[in-house]
Design a protein that fits this description.
- It is a single chain.
- This protein is of the alpha/beta class and about 325 residues long.
- Helix content is about 40%, strand content about 20%.
- The protein has 11 helices and 12 strands.
- It has helices at about 40-60, 95-105, 115-125, 185, 190-200, 205-215, 220-230, 235-255, 270-285, 290, 305-315; strands at about 5-10, 15-20, 25-35, 65-70, 75, 80-85, 110, 135-140, 140-150, 150, 260-265, 295-300.
- The strands form 3 sheets. The chain has a 5-stranded mixed β-sheet with strand order 3-2-1-4-7. It has a 5-stranded mixed β-sheet with strand order 10-9-8-11-12, with helices on one face. It has a two-stranded antiparallel ribbon with strand order 5-6.
- Helix 1 packs across helix 2.
- The longest helix has 25 residues, at about 235-255.
- It is globular.
- The structure holds zinc ion.
- Zinc ion binds near residues 165, 175, 177, 182 and 184.
């Protein structure tokens, strides 16, 4: 009987589940609102109900290999607990693994969301030909995951691969984590908007960028990307800065880990064509290893499904 696994991806906004065959075929995907305002027990009930439904539908024809989840927070994996989760209110200290195991009546694999997305890209995405890769998700913040020798690298406490908090500019912008000059403060979607906001207060800002702030209700990285595509110099400059920051971080990672593949995902990857030039340039300028033996830097292939693939993959490993 062919095996399948159920992968769960819980973020601050969306809850996704996938039933995925051992060869990577996606049998079914569920995407619903996470409704995190109700607290962890409401979310966990929803997770358990959907796992059971997927198992009922697919467990007749396939053998369930296991169930895994990536959760948007820092976890104490050996205890199955959440330590801190800024996007999941009320989850601090919550014993999520045991609560889900109670709900579904079987064992369950828990991971951080960046780690499972990295594993997903390694299994079925842009990193499938590599045993050593770093994954970054460029969204509201920057999440990360590191795969070494084909496996998730957890570090000593499970907090490895917080790649968004690598310092790229020692005296740079303040980051949400309290540090100055983190990658996240330059290369996330939030950073693009923040950069535009501070730029329009100066003489250097283009007229188009200033007009965008007058005419639009809500400014997001997408508006600014559209301006960049139309040739607006200020917007292009913001994405170029993003690419440079990514290049600095990637060059550092090449020198530490000697990995061959980088995969970039998340919403802000939509602006890949505007930031990639400065990113590749910076990696080359800063890394003699890159110049001698160029490494692959790819766009995510699985997009927002990377998490469910990786979470399912935990059961096949
Ligand atoms: Zn930071």
């Amino acid at each position: 009987m062919t095996r399948f696994a159920i992968g769960v991806d819980l973020g601050g906004t969306n809850l996704k589940l996938g039933a995925i065959e051992e060869d990577g075929t996606l049998l079914e995907k569920i995407e619903i609102s996470a409704e995190t305002q109700g607290g962890p027990s409401v979310v966990v009930k929803k997770i358990c109900r959907n796992i059971s439904e997927l198992n009922e539908r697919w467990g007749q024809r396939y053998k369930l290999s296991g169930i895994g989840a990536g959760i948007a927070g820092i976890m104490k994996l050996d205890e199955g607990k959440v330590i801190t989760a800024p996007n999941l209110p009320g989850w601090e200290g919550y014993p999520v693994r045991s609560k889900i195991e109670e709900g579904i009546g079987t064992s369950f694999k828990l991971e951080n969301d960046g780690n499972v997305a990295a594993l997903g890209e390694k299994w079925m995405g842009a990193g499938r030909n590599s045993q050593h890769l770093a994954f970054m998700t460029l969204g509201t913040g920057i999440g990360g995951g590191l795969i070494l020798d084909g496996k998730i690298w957890h570090g000593i406490s499970g907090m490895a691969a917080e790649l968004g908090h690598i310092t790229v500019y020692p005296d740079g912008n303040l980051c949400n984590c309290g540090n100055y000059g983190c990658l996240e403060a330059y290369a996330s979607a939030t950073a693009i908007v923040r950069g535009a906001k501070s730029l329009i207060k100066t003489e250097q800002a283009s007229l188009n960028l200033k007009e965008l702030f007058v005419s639009s209700q809500e400014i997001d990285a997408k508006n600014i990307y559209r301006l960049a595509k139309s040739g607006d110099s200020s917007s292009i400059e913001l994405f170029s800065r993003m690419g440079t920051a990514l290049g600095i971080a990637i060059a550092g990672l090449i020198h530490i880990f000697d990995i061959d593949t980088f995969v970039l995902g998340g919403g802000a990857i939509a602006s890949w064509d505007v930031f990639k030039k400065s990113m590749f340039l910076e990696v080359g300028n800063r890394s003699f290893v890159q110049r001698a033996d160029p490494r692959n830097i790819y766009k995510s292939e699985l997009g927002s499904d990377a998490g469910i693939y990786g979470a399912a993959c935990l059961s096949f490993q």
